[in-house]
# Entry
Amino acid sequence: MRYLTRRTLTLAGCIAASLGAGSAMAQQKEILLGAQCDRVGPTQIVATAYCPAMHDYAALINSKGGIGGFRIRIDEIDNNYQVPPAIEAYERHKQMGAVSYLIWGTPQALALKPRLEQDRIPGTSPGFGSAAAADGKKYPYVFPIAATYWSQGAAAIDFAKRRLGGNLKGKKIAYLYFDNPAGLEPLPVIKDIQELEGFELRTFAVPSPGVEMGAQILDISQRYRPDFVIAHLFGRAPSVAIKDLKRAGFPLSKVLGLVWASGEPDIIAAGGFALAEGYNTMQFAGVGTDYPVLNEIRAMYQKEGKPVPPAMETSVYYNRAILNTALHVEAVRIAVQAKGGKAPTGEDVKAAFERIKDFTLGGLLPPLEVTAADHEGGGWVQVFTIKGGKFVADGPWFRAYRDVVQKHLAAAH
# Structure
């Protein structure tokens, strides 16, 4: 087990010693959710806020008595954004009795898919993983529960179209992407929409680790001169792109970062909100700190006499973790209720995920509806623009070119 670092949380924010040595009855009053994170690897810029938020939401639920008398226990293992430790972590969680799983990373989601199906444990991959997993019939135990890369790509073209006056014919769009399978995934949908809308498309690949893209930025800003840029980058790459585009004189108001190029850490690492003025960010959870559930978490900390954690100020990634964890807890609630108060199995929680509807956490979540056929929840996104040193919503939740996305879903294996 050389790869793994583990964190757990129950009612008081950690597993009480009495539970570790307690009775079997006490053990039965917990429901375990397995979770992976990357606190030290290449995606730690996201994890810094994301991973603490999972535990904060579980603590909030447990502070209210849990779900049907059960405490929600999250056991987190660091996978360092690598596949072997992700598999090892999953196997450990399975042995511990996890009934649902919070996946971390696209390569990890692909590797865990057959194990989740074999063990009948539902896993979530919000905003990452395979876009084909939106089809619940083909991926019965994987739940994107947020806009997949196909839906993000389609929405990005729709946003560019609106920004460019409602007509893309003859316009030039640049697609700046991290050169790996996740970075490539939106392209088939974007290319299909290109045929429909008649715009010119050029792609610019950024090799790992994504910290050198001077040649690509020069090509975009000085040679190609596009009308709009879609940036699909992750890790350290988004901040490099923002900074280099700004330095090259390209207007950031003509740039849209997909969901993993859209957090406060990305903006800060690029030089701050003043530098990134005009930059557009795509989100699948609400941005900002003034939502009812976040106010409850702050109140919980204050009641315990503890300082509110800094992670809460990093609202983009913190709020996404709240979305992810809250949907797991909601599925557990539905499953416990369906079983008449008994502890659910992974299969029970899977069926419960497919009954989630009208659960928005006071506007933090989009109007998603998860069904047996649609594990994505509809593909909703919202765009926020950097204005006056903060994120400002450009408009309501939206989705686009659903017929194109559905065509790819139907053809996927």
